[in-house]
Amino acid sequence: MTTKINNIIEELKSLTLLEAVELVKQIEETFEVDASSVGNSGMVMMPAASDVSDSTVVSEKTEFDVILEEFPAAKKIAILKVVRSITGLGLKEAKDLVESVPKALKEGVSKEEAEEIKSKLDEAGAKIVIT
Fold this sequence. Notes:
Mean pLDDT: 82
Strand content: 5-15%
Distance between the termini: 58 Å
Shape: rod-shaped
Structural class: alpha+beta
CATH architecture of the largest domain: 2-Layer Sandwich
Low-confidence stretches: none
Order of helices and strands: HHEHHEHE
Number of helices: 5
């Protein structure tokens, strides 16, 4: 290393923790970098362009469909009761829906609601798929 770099290293060693934090802030502002994105690589990454394309952003799925796949015939009445309470359908509509499996019971619901519906129908004996 050159003497200039050695001198800088020696100066850095003598900094207090508060001075080091202030130095990092100044470096980030001056060179438009983010020290928190360094990770274990030891390299400073330049900030990404402000117009990030949508294809690079990974989004978490927030809406789910609850699908009734199948059910045992002996449990049909219990499943009809649960389907009616979940969907608000009348007896005939719920019966038609249950008899036309596989069929979506609810579409576009939250993950929590989908899991709750699945657990209710599992208890009644139905096979449910969340997509």
